[in-house]
Every structure is written in structure tokens, then in C-alpha cells.
Amino acid sequence: MTFVLGVDGGATKTFAIVADERGHIRGFGQGGPGNHETVGLDSALTEIARACKSALAQSDVTPPVECAVFGLAGADLPTDFDLLSTSLQKLGFSRKLYVENDAVIALRAGLKRGWGVGVVCGTGFNACGIGPDGTKLRFPGLGWISGDWGGGVDIAREVIRLVCRAWDGRGRPTMLAEKVPAILGFSRIEEMIAHLRQEELAHYPGWFDRRRLFKVVPLVFEAAYNGDEVAQDLLIRLGNEVGLAASAIIRRLGLEGSDVEVILAGGVFKGRGPLLLDAVTLTVHRVAPRAKVVIAKFEPVVGAVLLALESLGIEITDDIYANLEATLPHQLSMNGLSLLETR
Predict the structure, then answer these.
(1) 87, 119, 161, 174: most buried, per Cβ within 10 A?
(2) Is 218 in the same domain as 79?
(3) pLDDT exceeds 50 at position 35
(4) How many domains does the chain have?
């Protein structure tokens, strides 16, 4: 029996699963942040190894497995891939090893065929695509440095900005002005502003405790669903940005006239209500009217497993998809993960 290892390492967590050649998931493991850019290489490798060891132990499979695919946030530039590939090979979990950006495994997790376009919106933001001829495209995904906006960090900061402007009279009233300080543990906006300023000064400009700020993001969806125009406009802006990213990849791959699948992955797309998806679809359909915009059925770590199987020449059949779904750990079910937990 042939076994593969799939890993999804992000800014807040790392997931690993072991599967056999027929798509049965044999083991699942979880670790902390696996992004070397945010926690450092040694810490990221420690958490990745912890997740892999847990998955292998649960599966009763002795390493090395035949192939492993590591989909990692922070695998952006050629220097990242060289560093990560060399470091991960030393862990000895597999005979063959491939490092991919986490956007690539998220795309593969959602595709029903071998080509399409994907946008990841979780902690950060990225987009990628694979053409019918195998051409691959991906944005650098380096945040504002490479022109990105729309990840959880961006949304949280924008919400706080809008709340402050509502408070001081420069912006429109919003129910978020009361809810945001409260969920962050403050009784008044002035108190929130002062604390965030001290937190920023204690580290460096633009730094904030991401895990705490992410609590803000679900409030936007709730407020929008309940008719708050400020929240609705923010989700429409986000949807336009996601759609614009997908449309740029579609154009560059020459897929405007096709029924291209546009896969949306990441915790932000777990928010309540249809408004975000509607806004994405509207923007995409202006460029590619036949495109199919869908939320990824599987979590990105499943995409890593699919890529590992394909790298061994194994065709992904309906039976393999069915086996994956039937043996999926509850931690990876659509109901088992909260907003932003996946990235």
C-alpha cells in the first residue's frame, strides 16, 4: 500500500493528513503556526513536524511515506522554496517532497478537474490559476508590498478605521461602533485606540495581535446580514477585490470564454450571508460570463494530498473523492472550523 502526506501550514495553524493511494485518510495531526515569515523558520518547522508526527502516529504508518506535499503560507519567492525544501527534507517524512504555496493546495482542494482559478482569503490574500494547457500563475502574495488587500488582517484594520470614523463624525454610523470595542475587551472606543497604539509602539508600526483582531471579522458579516450599510459596503468592496484578482488570472490565462471554475478558499468565505459571494460572482461574470464561482468543498490540506497522489501518477477518480469525504476527520469538516481558523 502506498501512502502520502499532505500538509497545510498557515499563519495560525498547521494541519497534516496521511492518506493511502485509494484516498482513505488514515491519520490527522495539528500544530501551531507553520509560516516561517511570521514565527521564524525553527518555530515553523517544529509545528509542521508536530502535525506530521501526530498524523503518522495515528495512521500507524512508519515514515518515510512515498510522497509529501507541503502547502505553506510564506512560500512566496524562489528563496523561500529553496529554504523550505532543504529544511523539510531533513525531517525525513517522505521519499519525495514538494513545496507549494498554500494558495495552490487550496485551489486543488476545490477543483473538479485539473485547471481553474483560485482565490484564498484568510489571514492573508492570494490568487493563482492553472490553465487547461498546464500553465501556472500565482500572485506573489506579499500583502501591500505586492498590491494585495483583503485578508483577515486587512479587514480587521479597515473595520477599526471605519468604527473610529463613525465615532468622531467623519464616517457613517454603524452598529460595529459598539460591537467592535466590546469584543476586543474595551468599554469605550477611546480606550481601544489608546491600547492599540501602545501595542503598536511596543512592537513596530502596523503590528497587532492577529488572533485578537480576527475576532472582529465575523462581526462584519453579522452586521451586514442585519442591514448595516457600512458593513455591507465593506463586504462588497472585499467581493470586488476577490473578483478582480480572479478576473486578472482569468485574463492572463485566456479563459474569458470558458466555463472556468473559480474556487474560493479560506476562513473569510465562511462568513454569514450571501453578500460576499454575490459581489465576487458579479465581478467575475463581467469578465467571464460562463465562470462557475464556488466555495471549496474540502479544506486546503486535502488539496495537498491530491497533489501528492497525482505526483505519483495516480488518477483522481470519483472513488478517491468519495473515500476522502467519507474518512474526513471532523476537525476538517465545513462545520468543524470557525471563521478564519483555516488560514
Answers:
(1) 119
(2) no
(3) yes
(4) 3
